[in-house]
Amino acid sequence: MQNTSKQYDLVIDECRSLFVKKMSDYGSAWRILRLPSLTDQIFIKAQRIRQLQENTVRKVDEGEKSEFIGIINYSIMALIQLELGIVDQPDLSTEKASELYDKHSSITKELMENKNHDYGEAWRDMRISSLTDLILQKLLRVKQIEDNKGKTLVSEGIDANYQDMINYAIFALIHHSELDS
């Protein structure tokens, strides 16, 4: 479990670094996005990963890794939007956005550690393609919850689904790093 924590932190550090660089380039323009727009961005990335996993020919020289990073960062943006609400104009400094990024990635890591304890790191025996499918399933659930105006009868809320997507994407990136080494 200790190794998982270190691997998790390395992935989050890489994702956060890209997030901060994009904040420097674009500011917090993403703050105007409604949750369904963020969900759709994540969906596009997950669909692309699935296509890359199924297709033998690639016409764009980008792999799964950048798409999984996108899933993580867009999911954290969605969690921030859930917390702060949507705005009409960008309103966050890089410092404040980074602070919120750290807060939500920390909460999500704690969830992973609790589930990882209970499941005995079962994700380590899963295929990357299965993690992709689970992300797509979570996205379909989020879309349904969004269509239901955020209401659920017995299911976890949108935030828990975004957190699960972050964790599945991190697990996929850990698998990729192990394959690369």
Uncertain runs? none
Mean pLDDT: 93
What structural class should be given to the helix and strand makeup?
A: mainly alpha
Order of helices and strands: HHHHHH
**Fraction of residues in H or I helices:** over 70%
Largest sheet: none
Instruction: Indicate the radius of gyration in whole angstroms.
Output: 16 Å
- Taken as a percent bin, the fraction of beta residues is under 5%
Number of helices: 6
Describe it:
The protein has 181 residues and is mainly α. It is built from 6 helices and no strands. It has helices spanning 2-26, 35-54, 64-84, 94-119, 128-147, 158-180. Helix 3 packs across helix 4 (94-119) and helix 3 (64-84) runs antiparallel to helix 6. The protein is globular, with a radius of gyration of 16 Å. The chain starts with a helix and ends with a helix.
Features:
single chain; 181 residues; mainly alpha; 6 helices; 75% helix
List the helices and strands and how they pair.
Layout (H helix, E strand, L loop, with lengths): L1 H25 L8 H20 L9 H21 L9 H26 L8 H20 L10 H23 L1
In short:
With 181 residues, the protein is an all-alpha fold. It is 75% helix and 0% strand.
